[in-house]
Amino acid sequence: MSKSIACHVRVRPGKEADGKMNEEGIVIEGNKISAMNGQGDKRYHFEFEKCHAADSTQDDVFDHVKPLLDRAWKGVNTTIFAYGVTGAGKTHTMQGTKQDPGLIPRTVNAILNRQAELSTSTVEVSISYVEILKDEVYDLLGSANEPRKRDIRMSTGGQNVVADLIYQPITSWEQFEVDYDVASKSRKTASTKLNSSSSRSHAILTIYLHVVDEAGKVTDGKICLTDLAGSENNNLTGNDKERMRESSAINTSLTTLGKVVDALNVVQQKGGDASGVFIPYRESKLTRLLQDALGGTSQGLLICCLAPGEKFARDTINTLQFGKKSKAVENRLNDNRRDSRRLSVLPTKPRASLRVHTDSSTAPTTGRPSLGRPALAPIAANTRQVKPQPRTSIAGSAGKKAALALKENVGLGLTEEQLEKRIQKIVTQEMANAREKERPVEAPLKPVVEHPFGEAVGMSDEEKDTRAKVIVKHARSLQQSGDLEGALDLYKKAYDYVPGNQKLATRIAEIQLSLEGILPPPELSGRSRHHDHDKSTTSSKAPLKRSRAPAGSTSLAELSYEAEDESDVGASVKKMKNNDYTAISMTSPPF
Ligand SMILES: Nc1ncnc2c1ncn2[C@@H]1O[C@H](COP(=O)(O)OP(=O)(O)OP(=O)(O)O)[C@@H](O)[C@H]1O
After folding, report:
1. Whose alpha carbon is nearest atom 15 of ligand 1?
2. Which of 128, 140, 208, 375 could join 370 in a cystine, given CB atoms 3.0 to 4.6 angstroms apart?
3. Which PROSITE patterns does the UniProt record give (predicted)?
C-alpha cells in the first residue's frame, strides 16, 4: 500500500518578542494557507490536510491526529514530526505543559484509556525516548549515572536500529507522567534570543503497542513522535560559541532532512523509480532514524509550526515549502498483524518488566521491542536502497522477462522479507540453471523452510553456498560503492550460510575494524565484469565516500540478470567447492 505523508500546519500566537507583525503575513482559509515574503511584494500559496490558526487549542490539534493513532492499533507504523523555525511552537505542540499537554501525553493517555476498554485483548504498551544532540544519539530513559550515548547500527534486516536502547513498559498514567517528566527534563535545552527554552536536540519518543486478541491474533503498532530542533539563524538567536556549534549540527541535520525529501521527490517524479537517485539518509543520524517515516513503511504526519512576525517571513515560506515537498513523498505502509499460533519471524512476547535493556545484533521488523530474544531496538524500521544499473547484455528472453519483473519490483528499497525473497529467487534460478546443465532430467527443487531468524533449515550445502555467493556478490557491490556498513551487514548474512569460512570471517573483521577507524578500508581483491564497464568512475582503490553511492553500483535486481546468464552461472556453480569462494568465476569474484 502506498500513501503520501500528510501535512498539518499550526501557527502559534504572536508575542512581544516577535517584533513587527503583519496581519496579512500569514492568512489561513480552510485548509489553504498563504504567506507573504519579507519584502511584502509576493505571496506564496499552499494547501494542506489541516491548517490550525493561532487560536487553535492542543485539543484541536490532537483531534486531527487521532485517525492516525487508530492506524497504529491496526498494526501500521506511524510517525508524527513537528518541524519549524526555532520558537515556532514545536515543543509546545508535541510536549506541551502539565496544564496544557501536547500530543505526546495526549497520545499516551488515549492509548491507556483504550487499553482499559479492550477487556478481551491483552495490550502491552512501552516507550523508548532518545534525543539527537550534535549528531549523537542519547537515551533519555537512561539513568544519569550511566552513559546514555548510543550507537545506531544496521540490523541484518537492513534496519537502522539504536543499540542498547531502553524500553520502558507503561502500566499507568501516573507512572508515564513521572518517567516522561524526568526524561524530558534531561533533554538539552538552552536560552536563545528567540526562545528562552530552546530545544538543542531532536527528540524521538516511540510508543510500542502489542495487542493479542482473544482469537490469538497479534498486532504490533508503533507511534513515533518527533520534536525536531528548530532551524536557526544565528543573527537572530544571538548564539554564543557553544550554541553556535549546536546550531550548526541542528541546521546540518535539517538540511540533510531537506535533501532526503528532495531526493524522494525526484523518485516520485520518476514514477517511483529510485535508480540513479541518491537518497542521503546516512548523512545524519536524524535521517537514519527517520528513514522509515520518509520513503519507508511508516504512515507519516508532518506538523509545520509557524511563528508570526515579519522577521520569520522567510522561515515561514521555507517551512511551508518543506511541508509541500514532504507531502509528495510516498511510503509503503506495513501491516504488523499476524496469527500468534503460526510460525513467525516476529519476536516472541516480552516479559513484563519495569525497565529493559536490549543488546544484541538483530532487530525485529516491526515496531515492537523484542524482549524475548536478544535484539537491537528499532527506532525506525527501514529499507535498504538499491540502485538498478543499466546492463549491456541480458542472455535470453526468459532473462529479459525476469529482469523486467524485477525492475518493476525495485522501488525505494527492500525490506528484509523482500530481500530474502529476492535472494531466494536468484538462488533458485542459479541452482535450476546449474542443474539443467548437469542433468538431463531436472529434479524438483526442495522447498526451503525458513527459520524464524532467517537461517534456512533443511538446505543442502550446495544451496547454502549458492546463497552465500549471491549475498557476497551484492556485499562486494556495496563495499565498492563505499557503503561499508551495508556491505558488512550482507557479509554477515552470507557468513550465516557458510559459518567457519575463514576468508569471509577475515573480511567481516576487516570492515568492522575499518568502521571503528582502526584499519583503513579493505580493498577488494577482484572485480566483477559488471564493474569493469565503469572503471572510469569507480575503482576498488578509490577513496571511500560513505555518503554517496556511485551510479555504477549493482543491485540484487542486476544479479538476477547474471543468474539468467546460464553459461556464466553454470561455470561458476560447477567451480564452487566447499566455501572456496576464490574458485568462483568472474560472476562471483573472490572477496
Ligand atoms: N500554540 C501556542 N500557544 C501558546 N503558546 C505557545 C504556542 N506555541 C508556542 N508557544 C510558546 O512559544 C514559546 C516557544 O515555543 P516552543 O518552545 O514550543 O518552540 P520550539 O519550536 O519548540 O522552539 P525550539 O526549536 O527553539 O525548541 C514557548 O514559550 C511556548 O510556550
Report:
1. 89
2. 375
3. KINESIN_MOTOR_2 (PS50067), TPR (PS50005)
Residue 327: predicted pLDDT: 81
CATH assignment at residue 259: 3.40.850.10
CA–centroid distance, 92 to ligand 1, in Å, is 5
Q: How far is the CA of 91 from the centre of ligand 1 (A)?
A: 6
pLDDT digits (tens, 9 = 90+) for 461-495: 777 888 888 888 888 888 887 778 888 888 888 88
Would you place residue 10 in the very low, low, confident or very high pLDDT band (cuts 50, 70, 90)?
Answer: very high
**Kind of pairing, strands 299-306 and 6-11?**
parallel
Nearest to 289 by CA among 153, 169, 134, 164: 153
Q: Is 122 annotated as a binding residue?
A: no
- Is 193 annotated as ligand-binding? no
- Helix or strand run (H / E) with residue 566: helix 566-575
Residue 447 located in a structural domain: no
Q: How far apart are CA 108 and CA 244, in angstroms?
A: 35
Handedness of CA 564, 565, 567, 572 (dihedral sign): negative
Domain containing 498: what range?
417-429+462-522
* Residue of 28, 91, 286 to test ligand 1 pocket, by largest number of atoms within 8 Å of CB: 91
For the CA of 88, the nearest atom of ligand 1 = 21
What is the average pLDDT across 67-73?
Answer: 91
Residue 366 forms part of a structural domain: no
